């Protein structure tokens, strides 16, 4: 006997002990109440069946008492729903039909062909963990990054991996935009019960680009309720966005709070090594049967690495150019690649000479400050941030400059102050994607 049945039998036993209080006799209890069967729990609703409509009419007046006892036994807040066995079977067939849906997973997006690097390793590890044990540790899992860095790939990989391990599992991949459209359609068709049932039966719900649900109050309300039901039933929710939960403008604060209650991870722009590995994987998938030199891969990984889509697009362009203009070539070398990208790439201009002065000026301009403010003794937080970044960039970009020299250039500060500033910047770089992006933007302006 499972826990569901045990709890129900305890409920009936306690109910039987109070028959006199309810004005019932043992014959009535044995004839009608012992035929009650607990069938299902969906959220906070417990479905109980009885054999006939006549029996249902006899038992129904006492349902409130049964519900009170059941909640005492389970220490829960459940609502008992009583129906005939015949009606339950009809409803069950209908519900099973509702779960014959397209999961919308892309079978080509798996963990096997997801290229792992320092920029996405944590997100990949977390995704694999929830795919292996849905709903156990990290629900919800919230993945954020700029567009084109692999969030959608990881969502599909989670679903495909989980379904391979257990084909009976209910998995649904959808975008927040599709969720809203389906909700609106359900309202128009008066089929909200079916909409609610389908989403609340998911074992793994994968929602892409949640930011598009911001400001849509009615859709947010229904999603909030579905979210709570799945989490309370220990199901797995994975959400992606172009920004972390706290930065989702227009999103209800209670949803932001729920999103933040699980595990939040980010994906950064691929570094050179990861970008090159992605190119190799794409070449393998495309079954390219002619060699491409390492110089070409280095060139693309260096100049077209904003995101994975840009890398893919650059490779497709190169292969197309080879098909059209390089039919007689046995190898794609750097000269051919430069020709293929001639209208979108030009040889870099000679680098500007970096000095402490132009680094401070660049940082000051970026933060709408003056160099005098950066050199000052001001402890205003915005000025401190800019000052520390300027010190860090001077140390990183100018060769053979000492902490003592940097301190002298920044208003005669002690070398230990400079060391602490650089250390703080390095720590924030490892944890804060927005901070890291700001420094990258400043570097681009400098070089």
Automatic annotation (TrEMBL):
The gene is dnaA. It comes from Massilimicrobiota timonensis. Gene3D superfamilies: 1.10.1750.10, 1.10.8.60, 3.30.300.180, P-loop containing nucleotide triphosphate hydrolases (3.40.50.300). Residues 1-91 are annotated as: Domain I, interacts with DnaA modulators. Residues 137-268 form the AAA+ ATPase domain. Keywords: ATP-binding, Cytoplasm, DNA replication, DNA-binding, Lipid-binding, Nucleotide-binding. The keyword Transferase does not apply. PANTHER family: CHROMOSOMAL REPLICATION INITIATOR PROTEIN DNAA. Plays an essential role in the initiation and regulation of chromosomal replication. ATP-DnaA binds to the origin of replication (oriC) to initiate formation of the DNA replication initiation complex once per cell cycle. Binds the DnaA box (a 9 base pair repeat at the origin) and separates the double-stranded (ds)DNA. Forms a right-handed helical filament on oriC DNA; dsDNA binds to the exterior of the filament while single-stranded (ss)DNA is stabiized in the filament's interior. Residues 355-425 form the Chromosomal replication initiator DnaA C-terminal domain. Domain I is involved in oligomerization and binding regulators, domain II is flexibile and of varying length in different bacteria, domain III forms the AAA+ region, while domain IV binds dsDNA. This is Chromosomal replication initiator protein DnaA. It comes from the Bacteria. Its main location: cytoplasm. Oligomerizes as a right-handed, spiral filament on DNA at oriC. ATP binds at residues 148, 150-152. The keyword Cytoplasm applies. Belongs to the DnaA family. It is found in: Cytoplasm. Residues 323-447 are annotated as: Domain IV, binds dsDNA. GO terms for molecular function: ATP binding; DNA replication origin binding; lipid binding. GO terms for cellular component: cytoplasm; plasma membrane. InterPro entries: AAA+_ATPase, Chromosome_initiator_DnaA, Chromosome_initiator_DnaA-like, Chromosome_initiator_DnaA_CS, DnaA_C, DnaA_dom, DnaA_N_sf, P-loop_NTPase. One of its GO terms (biological process) is DNA replication initiation. The lineage of its organism: Bacteria, Bacillati, Bacillota, Erysipelotrichia, Erysipelotrichales.
């Amino acid at each position: 006997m499972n826990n569901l049945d045990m709890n129900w039998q305890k409920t009936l036993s306690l109910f039987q002990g109070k028959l006199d209080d309810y004005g019932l006799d043992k014959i009535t209890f044995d004839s009608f109440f012992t035929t009650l069967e607990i069938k299902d729990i969906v959220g906070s609703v417990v479905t109980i069946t009885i054999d006939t409509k006549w029996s249902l009419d006899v038992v129904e007046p006492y349902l409130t008492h049964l519900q009170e006892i059941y909640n005492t036994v389970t220490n829960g807040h459940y609502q008992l729903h009583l129906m005939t066995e015949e009606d339950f079977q009809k409803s069950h067939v209908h519900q099973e039909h509702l779960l014959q849906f397209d999961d919308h997973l892309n079978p080509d997006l798996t963990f096997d062909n997801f290229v792992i690097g320092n920029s996405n390793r944590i997100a990949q590890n977390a995704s694999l963990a929830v795919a292996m044990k849905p709903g156990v540790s990290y629900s919800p899992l919230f993945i954020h990054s700029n567009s084109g860095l692999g969030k959608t790939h990881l969502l599909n990989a989670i679903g495909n991996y989980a379904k391979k391990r257990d084909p009976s599992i209910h998995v649904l991949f959808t975008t927040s935009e599709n969720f809203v459209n389906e909700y609106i359609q359900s309202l128009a068709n008066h089929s909200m019960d079916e909409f609610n049932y389908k989403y609340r039966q998911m074992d793994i719900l994968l929602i892409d680009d949640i930011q598009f649900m911001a400001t849509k109050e009615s859709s947010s309300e229904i999603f909030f309720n579905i979210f709570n039901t799945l989490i309370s039933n220990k199901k797995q929710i994975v959400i992606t966005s172009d920004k972390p939960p706290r930065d989702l403008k227009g999103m209800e604060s209670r949803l932001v709070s729920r999103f933040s209650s699980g595990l939040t991870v980010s994906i950064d722009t691929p570094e050179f090594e990861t970008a090159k590995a992605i190119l190799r994987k794409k070449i393998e998938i495309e079954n390219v049967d002619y060699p491409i030199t390492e110089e070409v891969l280095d060139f693309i990984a260096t100049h077209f690495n904003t995101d994975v889509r840009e890398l893919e697009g650059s490779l497709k362009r190169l292969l197309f150019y080879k098909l059209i203009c390089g039919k007689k070539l046995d190898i794609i070398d750097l000269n051919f690649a430069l020709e293929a990208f001639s209208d979108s790439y030009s040889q870099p201009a000679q680098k500007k000479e970096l000095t402490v002065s132009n680094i401070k000026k660049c940082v000051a301009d970026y933060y709408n400050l003056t160099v005098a403010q950066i050199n000052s003794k001001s402890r205003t937080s915005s000025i401190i941030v800019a000052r520390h970044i300027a010190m860090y960039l001077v140390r990183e970009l100018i060769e053979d400059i000492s902490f003592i020299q940097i301190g002298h250039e920044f208003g005669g500060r002690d070398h230990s102050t400079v060391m602490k500033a650089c250390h703080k910047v390095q720590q924030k770089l490892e944890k804060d994607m927005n901070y890291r992006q700001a420094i990258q933007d400043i570097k681009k302006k400098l070089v």
